[in-house]
Design brief:
It is built from twelve helices and 17 strands. With 414 residues, the chain is an alpha/beta fold. It folds into three domains: 115 residues, Rossmann fold (3-Layer(aba) Sandwich), CATH 3.40.50.720; 150 residues, Dihydrodipicolinate Reductase, domain 2, CATH 3.30.360.10; 78 residues, no CATH class. The strands form three sheets. The chain has a six-stranded parallel β-sheet with strand order 3-2-1-4-5-6, sandwiched between helices. A six-stranded mixed β-sheet has the order 11-10-7-8-9-12. A five-stranded mixed β-sheet has the order 16-13-15-14-17. Bound molecules: L-homoserine.
Length: 414
């Protein structure tokens, strides 16, 4: 006999993921979940589901006392926020995949959730099908976690893979990522790194209990990566990947950022290709662990939404146990990054900002510097935010390897 709670679902959105969820719910009777109504924006569009399931009136779902779960899968983050907050106020549990909405309203929504004693689950918002949130939430205590670094955006990973492996043009690769349903409807969120920052904001909450807003996380996407950068990576045996990263120093400060990164063969992230995501969890005792899977697309995302729906049958809630910790986000815990910086104008970069320099190359065609720089310097330079300048992480947290940071070795080829 199935003693699990009977779930009656109101679904918002019938796009790539919404339709996937509809199909899975229809075919998986064991879930004890029925789909009562689907709210859509455009009634003219033809849909692969019976017409009587659809409405354009959100209140038909939000005010229906029979519905006890709202599954929110729409694109518009502001509209999603209104739906989710109203649903919670109405005593309904919520499953959402809207990372932008969550990253910007997480603290407030958790407070609302507590006040109304319901669940708010969002595994699909971070790395699609990979159970990153539940793992960070349940398994890793602050004392064990030393870093989280991952490829958390499938579209940029798809584009970077296709550009390097198949020599595809950036626009063509982006178009394919859109056609395959990986990209956001506004793909600048993907390629500028904002989607990765939103996911990192959510990761910070579950990994360390840090309440942050995405605006406070330094980031750089993939739009400024030049063919010469890809060539440099090939020559050195690297793949370029967009990596979201946290590093915890000796104190309670965590440094977090999103940067294109040269990934070498020795890293598990090297083999994360196309729309796949991968997350490396650094643990003080267990060393390194790796989570890998599909991070975007209809069925991988549906799989995480479905897992959250299934968890609601036994009233699962995130406990946010680490929220009581005093770990803070900071840029000043003496964290040094080794970066490759390429730029058009020969004098764009002041080399004195680097703690040490490995390589300098200047010519009429291209210029680059490889060197070690303090995070508090890097993220405060003007050139970091200059779209003509490409900053690629070579190695994070290299302070321990640089014995004399003031010694500068310079190799100059003209
Ligand atoms: N646009 C997102 C990505 C979808 O490419 O990863 C999944 O969050």
């Amino acid at each position: 006999m199935d003693n699990h709670k009977q779930l009656v679902i109101g679904l918002f959105g019938f796009g790539v993921v919404g339709e996937g969820i509809y199909k899975v719910l229809k075919d998986t009777k064991s879930l004890n979940a029925s789909l009562q109504k689907i709210c859509i924006k455009n009634p003219e569009k033809s849909r692969n589901a019976p017409a009587e399931l659809f409405t354009t009136d959100a209140d038909e779902l939000l005010n229906d006392p029979a519905i006890n779960v709202i599954v929110e899968l729409i694109d518009d983050a502001d509209a999603a926020y209104n739906i989710v907050s109203k649903a919670i106020r109405g005593g309904k549990s919520v499953v959402t995949a809207n990372k932008k909405m969550l990253a910007n309203h997480l603290t407030e929504l958790i407070g609302l959730r507590d006040a109304h004693n319901v669940s708010l689950l969002y595994e699909a918002a971070v790395c699609g099908s990979i159970p990153v949130i539940r793992n960070l939430e349940e398994y890793y205590d602050n004392d064990l976690l030393s870093s989280v670094s991952g490829i958390v955006n499938g579209s940029t990973n798809y584009i970077l893979t296709k550009m390097a492996a198949e020599g595809q043009d950036y626009q063509e690769a982006l178009k394919q990522a859109q056609e395959l349903g990986f990209a956001e409807s506004d793909p600048t969120l993907d390629v500028e790194g904002i989607d990765a920052v939103n996911k990192l904001t959510i990761i910070l909450k579950h990994a360390y209990g840090i309440d942050e807003v995405p605006d406070d996380i330094p980031y750089c996407g993939i739009t400024q990566i030049k063919p010469s950068d890809i060539q440099y990576a090939k020559e050195k045996g690297y793949h370029i990947r967009l990596v979201a990263q946290t590093i915890q120093g000796e104190d309670e400060a965590v440094v977090a950022f999103v940067l294109p990164t040269f990934v070498g063969k020795e890293s598990q992230l090297y083999n994360v290709n196309n729309e796949f995501n991968g997350v490396l969890i650094g643990s003080k005792l267990a060393d390194e662990q790796f989570l890998y899977g599909k991070g975007a697309g209809r069925f991988p995302t549906s799989s995480a939404v479905l897992s959250d729906i299934a968890a609601l049958r036994y009233d699962y809630r995130y406990e946010y146990k680490k929220s009581k910790s005093s770990v803070k986000l900071a840029l000043k815990n003496n964290t040094f990054l080794k970066v490759y910086v390429s730029f058009d104008s020969r004098d764009a970069i002041d080399q004195a900002q680097f703690a040490s320099i490995d390589e300098v190359y200047k010519s009429n065609g291209k210029n680059y510097i490889v060197g070690v720089i303090d995070v508090s310097v890097l993220f405060n330079t003007e050139w970091f935010y200059d779209k003509q300048v490409s900053v690629i992480l070579v190695e994070a947290n290299v302070a321990h390897k640089v014995s004399n940071l003031s010694t500068k070795e310079e190799v100059l080829y003209i």
